[in-house]
Amino acid sequence: MKKLPLLLTGGLMLAGMASCVNAGELAGNTEGAQVIRVEKNRGRIDALNDIVYSQVKSTVAVRQLHMSLLVPRNGDLKPAIIYFPGGGFTSAAWNKFIEMRMALATAGFVVAAAEYRTVPDTFPAPVIDGKAAVRYLREHAAEYGIDPSRIGVLGDSAGGYMAQMLALTNGDKTFDRGDNPAQSSDVQAAATLYGISNLLNIGEGFPQAIQKVHQSPAVTEALLVHGSAFRDWPGATIDSDPQKALAASPMGHISGKKPPFLIMHGSADTLVSPVQSQQLYRALKKEGNPADYVLLAGAEHGDDSWYQKPVIERVVNWFKATLGAPKAAATAEKDKNANL
């Protein structure tokens, strides 16, 4: 019988029956069937949605905060990454950036995506929520196969602000409130994509008309720090209290030893000034902290540039280098249903 040529498509090796196996040995085979051999070079990933990681109590209600998880199905001890979505401090839709999250999960990371409180809630509410998400993962590390000593954070835009704040306030108990208080909220690595590092100069270098918008008491960074106008109080601009604004900014927590940072920004960003990432990188290096800064030439704020393979691979490889690879299970025969 003449052998058919091999064809590689989508990771599957296709071949004629004569080049695969003896047709008579295959149950279910019949004349005209196409026989393929599949290389098992990747495992399954389980998606767990709408996990309540924290309950925030107010005087009139209790709000549940949610996260989703992507968990590689194996018995390995895995590093974890929490993704915080952007949304201009007005929304935190945690189902975003599935391309990045799936790439990280395929690389062996447990990947959480967490919502957090936004305007009209004010600082430090979002940071308190982010730290609660980290503590939740540590509390449930055994359940999901997570190595609690290797947790990183990732965020874009306002989510980048979240990642920065969590990493820069390691060891600061000011923001540790709520559930699982016995667990640490420290993180071991942070990646920020076109993130906000200083609420006082988000529009630096932009045209005056845009910078004027950032001086309004109605702009979201002012609402985050000062709250909205109410009764006889007209609200306040972000620079009306620079000390308060800096305390609510990553740049206000830059001194001392910090975990590794990956900082990425687009040179054509017209929403969050590239100065935000530039100043963060310079400040971290001045303090002697490890930081990588990647400027995407021509990339805009959250445009399709950020979903391309080279960008996603750079983030994945950076987390591999900083957090390390999953550690194989101690037993030779792994539970195939582990971490379900």
Please, could you describe this protein's structure?
The protein is built from ten helices and eleven strands. By secondary structure, the protein is of the alpha/beta class. The chain has two domains: 7-37, no CATH class; 45-323, Rossmann fold (3-Layer(aba) Sandwich). The strands form two sheets. Strands 4-5-7-6-8-9-10-11 form an eight-stranded mixed β-sheet, with helices on both faces. It has a three-stranded antiparallel β-sheet with strand order 1-2-3, with no helix packed on it. Helix 3 (125-139) packs across helix 5. It is globular, with a radius of gyration of 24 Å.
Query: What is the N-to-C succession of helices and strands?
Result: EEHEEEEHEHHEHEHHHEHEH
- Please state roughly what percent of the residues sit in beta strands, choosing from under 5%, 5-15%, 15-25%, 25-35%, 35-45% or over 45%: 15-25%
- The number of strands is 11
Q: Any idea what the radius of gyration is? A: 24 Å
- Give average pLDDT, whole number: 92
Query: How helical, in percent, are the residues?
Result: 25-40%
Form type: globular
Largest sheet: 8 strands, mixed
- The fourth-level CATH homologous superfamily of the largest domain is Alpha/Beta hydrolase fold, catalytic domain
Instruction: Write down the CATH class of the largest domain.
Output: Alpha Beta
Cα-to-Cα separation, first versus last residue: 46 Å
Give the strand order of the largest sheet, numbering strands 1, 2, ... along the chain: 4-5-7-6-8-9-10-11
Catalogue the unreliable spans.
1-20
Number of helices: 10
Protein name: Alpha/beta hydrolase
Organism: Klebsiella pasteurii
Keywords: Hydrolase, Signal
Pfam families: BD-FAE
